[in-house]
């Protein structure tokens, strides 16, 4: 998401940061490049003009040009302007009404409306404990109602039974009655779409809206259609009382222009962004976090949220107890690797961490992807239980057997062993400092660099996957290229204060 725009802006700001002082001509030249980058990212021209005018006015002020860190000041101004363009604040669903609260999903055919309906329903059920009922009003597209029923089963959300031959308005009435009888909190209506905006589509939506009186009317648009997505949103906003927008296929749009233009052009907040095919691949749209990702500042909060949602409490507790004793075997390493996979893999985590843009590019250039985690897991899985508990048993003969069993090379097995040795060494250092309490005490005086050598300056030498190395302390993934070369903050306090 926003990869090409982020790359272009990153280059512009790197040049600004490299200057000790800024002249007005420097800012003007930089803003010219930013304008081109935004237009290439498919951001609407009127939005680009307003954005550049606002940033240029603030960035050429005397306070900025004479600042000790003028480059950083300009980045902050751009960040604030991006947040404002995206909507300033996170827009929540308005569910403050007498149940059943009706959410009507509208949009063109093929925009991902039905899948998005199921995703939001699953989110409401799991995150807010709501009792949700879904109903498909799409009688035009073949098997549309059956599709929602299948998705409902996968998401664990009830769907309205299908009655062949019913009109959309009649289905909406039946859904409302069923929701009241079943004491449902939220009723989600998946309306029909068309290949383009026409009078028949609008008339049907207005009729359904009049019968169901929805609290939320969410427009689902495909971000891959770029400027056309903005045009569709404008057409719908002129006919229906929209309350928000959901952008789908955000994982496939490296430009992101639709997201940047949507709020400014329609005046409607972006409430959700769908980032994949799976039912849990949807997230609330947070302008501040998205702006941070675009400018390469990372999104630590999202990493914490992913960890909270995916890391199993009993595994974390067990590992913490072993860390306190200075223990760390291959089973613990395998648990760490599996947790990283559940959090989205190397690519997702690298995209959310501050200063990781170059590392992510280096990963792509070296052909490194999430298969690395799978290969590592396969190697550890090919070891016997005794070998996993006591890696020192792994002699040359055993390594050959493990390599054959996992379909890898002996040098790959050596890399895993080296990674384990570095992490085990870090665990022993933690124990010497008084366990986890001692590690926490170090945060005030020198950060993780002092507590766990190698985090900021790279892990000690040895066999590594392509690239520099992440250090022994940061989950033990030496295979992340570019890390350990100044990209990571020297003091974790810098991050903690910001949050």
Instruction: Please tell me what the overall shape is.
Output: flat
**CATH architectural category of the largest domain:** Orthogonal Bundle
What is the count of structural domains?
3
The count of helical stretches stands at 24
Main sheet overview: 8 strands, mixed
Helical fraction equals 55-70%
How many β-strand runs? 8
Helix-strand makeup class: alpha/beta
Overall average pLDDT: 74
Sheet with the most strands: spatial strand order: 3-2-4-1-5-6-7-8
Low-confidence stretches are 438-499
CATH topology of the largest domain: 434 Repressor (Amino-terminal Domain)
**CATH H level of the largest domain: which superfamily?**
Signal recognition particle, SRP54 subunit, M-domain
- Rg, please? 26 Å
Short summary of the structure?
With 499 residues, this protein is α/β, with parallel strands linked by helices.
């Amino acid at each position: 998401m926003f990869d090409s725009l982020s790359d272009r802006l990153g280059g512009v700001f790197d040049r600004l940061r490299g200057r000790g002082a800024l002249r007005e001509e420097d800012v003007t030249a930089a803003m010219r490049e930013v304008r081109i980058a935004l237009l290439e990212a498919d951001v609407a021209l009127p939005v680009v003009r307003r954005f550049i005018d606002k940033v240029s006015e603030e960035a050429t002020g005397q306070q900025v040009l004479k600042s000790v860190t003028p480059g950083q000041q300009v980045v902050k101004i751009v960040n604030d302007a991006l947040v404002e363009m995206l909507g300033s604040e996170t827009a929540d669903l308005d569910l403050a009404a007498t149940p059943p609260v009706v959410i009507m999903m509208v949009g063109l055919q093929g925009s991902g409306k039905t899948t998005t309906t199921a995703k939001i329903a699953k989110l409401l059920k799991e995150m807010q404990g709501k009792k949700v009922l879904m109903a498909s009003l799409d009688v035009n597209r073949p098997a549309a109602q059956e599709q929602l029923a299948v998705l409902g089963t996968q998401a664990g959300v009830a769907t309205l039974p299908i009655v062949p031959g019913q009109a959309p308005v009649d289905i909406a009435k039946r859904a409302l009655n069923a929701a009241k009888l079943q004491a449902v909190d939220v009723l989600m209506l998946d309306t029909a779409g068309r290949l383009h905006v026409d009078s028949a589509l609008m008339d049907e939506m207005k009729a359904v809206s009049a019968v169901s009186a929805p609290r939320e009317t969410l427009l689902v648009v495909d971000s891959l259609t770029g400027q056309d997505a903005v045009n569709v949103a404008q057409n719908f906003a002129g006919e229906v009382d929209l309350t928000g927008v959901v952008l789908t296929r955000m994982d496939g749009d490296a430009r992101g222009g639709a997201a940047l233009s949507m709020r400014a052009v329609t005046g409607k907040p972006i409430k959700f962004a769908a980032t994949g095919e799976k039912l849990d691949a949807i997230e609330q749209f947070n302008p501040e976090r998205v702006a941070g990702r675009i400018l390469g500042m990372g999104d630590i909060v999202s990493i914490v949220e992913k960890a909270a949602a995916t890391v199993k409490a009993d595994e974390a507790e067990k590992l913490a107890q072993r860390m306190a004793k200075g223990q760390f075997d291959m089973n613990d390493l395998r648990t760490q690797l599996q947790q990283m996979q559940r959090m989205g893999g190397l690519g997702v985590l690298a995209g959310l961490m501050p200063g990781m843009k170059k590392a992510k590019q280096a990963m792509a250039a070296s052909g490194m992807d999430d298969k690395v985690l799978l290969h590592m897991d396969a190697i550890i899985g090919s070891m016997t239980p005794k070998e996993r508990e006591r890696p020192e048993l792994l002699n040359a003969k055993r390594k050959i057997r493990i390599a054959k069993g996992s379909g890898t090379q002996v040098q790959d097995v050596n890399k895993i062993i080296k990674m384990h040795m570095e992490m085990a060494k870090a665990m022993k250092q933690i124990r010497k400092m008084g366990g986890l309490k001692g590690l926490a005490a170090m945060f005030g005086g020198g950060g993780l660099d002092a507590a766990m050598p190698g985090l900021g300056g790279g892990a000690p030498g040895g066999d590594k996957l392509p690239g520099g190395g992440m250090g022994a302390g940061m989950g033990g993934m030496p295979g992340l290229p570019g890390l350990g070369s100044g990209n990571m903050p020297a003091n974790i306090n810098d991050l903690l204060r910001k949050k």
